[in-house]
Amino acid sequence: MTATNSRRLDSEQLPPVRFAFDRHTWKEIAHLLSNLPAAILGFVYVVFMVAVGSGLAVTVIGLPLLAAGLLGARQLGKLERARARALLGVRVEEPSPLAVRRDGNLLSRLWMSLKDPVGWRTVLYEFIRLPWGVLTFSLVMPSLFVLWPVLPYIARGLTNADRAMVRGLLSPSDELERRIAELESDRGVVVDTAAADLRRIERDLHDGAQARLVALAMGLGLAKEKLLEDPDAAAVMVGEAHGEVKLALQELRDLARGIHPAVLTDRGLDAALSSIASRCTAPVKVNVDLTERPAQAIEGIAYFTVSELLQNISKHARARSASVEVWRSADRLLIQVHDDGQGGASLDAGTGMAGLADRLGAVDGLFVLDSPVGGPTTVTAELPWRDRG
């Protein structure tokens, strides 16, 4: 249910104003009378927090104290939402948790806390509440004895203003705030993924081509020493070194293909996916229905997604056949990889499938896995198109 629908239901569920003092009217009166003590506590807290934090900003502890005060203001906002929910029937969603980069240092975390919009909106709310609390208390308290017949109307009018303040200052900032939190989390995923890829490339270079080139250099050194003493043995060693060079070149080509294959850059997804499909242990039918190419970054993600899925088929699926389909729907690139293997794949944390889901989520994509035990397995991936520029 959207926030708009929720607000509409809140107003529709409120009973009409009547002279009878039903439970809804008494709750509204209780809210108005509790405004003053709640406002005094909130006002004293935020004034003290802002004054102390700002006054000590020139020292080491000033800004951390202000940041801690904003975190406390978040809790005040939570209490006010609970009070409005219990007495006024106002149900607003809780704001997203404070978005802090997982890889950030102390200064970046402090800065994120200091510019927290939820905390500052709560501070503004508490500043406004003191004069409003004095006004509502001074109007309602005498009305309990003097204006008893029209008190339900007064209570409804004043609490409608309370509802507007709660929704305006204590509710989430629609989708923007939630999206910011998601993007902060996704950025952490991207950073982790990039670091993992760099470690993989370093490991492949160290254990593969680098080790082979070291052995090649040693072999050529020995062949040089034997060149005059035993030309035949030197010729054999040079022949072996020639074979090592070919293997090293192949490993470097495979590594370069793993970073970004030339066939993808030159000929697009159709040719690139056909190339990796030919290396799968099961026959793979590839169907790419695209009249133009997506953005280069999206094209690369699509390629590596299919590549990892086909590697999983080769290693784990025991499939007799597989298929890859790629097409465009509006502004989205859709990918579906199917195999008739044993199934049982999952999105549990730490699996390759979970890593793929995280990577696609980081670019506003979707990853859906259907893999019952016994098979078949179907993976559907969706990516933003983003016109090639």
Structural descriptors:
3 domains, alpha+beta, five-stranded mixed sheet, 66% helix, Heat Shock Protein 90, 389 residues, 12 helices
3D structure, described in words:
This protein has a 5-stranded mixed β-sheet, covered by helices on one side. The protein has 12 helices and 5 strands. The chain is elongated. A hairpin with a 6-residue loop joins strand 4 (366-370) and strand 5 (377-384). The protein has 3 domains: 3-172, no CATH class; 192-259; 263-384, Histidine kinase-like ATPase, C-terminal domain (Heat Shock Protein 90), CATH 3.30.565.10. It has 389 residues and is of the alpha+beta class.
What pattern of helices and strands is seen along the backbone?
HHHHHHHHHHEHEEHEE
Q: Total helix count? A: 12
Point out poorly predicted stretches: 1-13
Instruction: State the helical fraction.
Output: 55-70%
Average pLDDT confidence is 78
Strand numbers in spatial order across the main sheet: 1-2-3-5-4
Q: Classify the beta-strand content into a percent band.
A: 5-15%
What global shape is seen?
elongated
Give a short account of the largest sheet: 5 strands, mixed
**Helix/strand structural class:** alpha+beta
Number of strands: 5
Structurally, the number of domains stands at 3
| CA gyration radius, whole angstroms | 33 Å
What is the terminal-to-terminal distance?
Answer: 37 Å
Any chance you could write out the topology, listing elements then pairs?
Elements: H1 3-13, H2 23-55, H3 62-88, H4 106-114, H5 117-143, H6 151-169, H7 174-229, H8 231-259, H9 262-267, H10 269-277, E1 284-289, H11 296-317, E2 322-329, E3 332-339, H12 352-361, E4 366-370, E5 377-384
Parallel strand pairs: 1-2
Antiparallel strand pairs: 2-3, 3-5, 4-5
Helix pairs in contact: 2-3, 2-5, 2-6, 3-4, 3-5, 3-6, 5-6, 7-8, 7-12, 10-11, 11-12
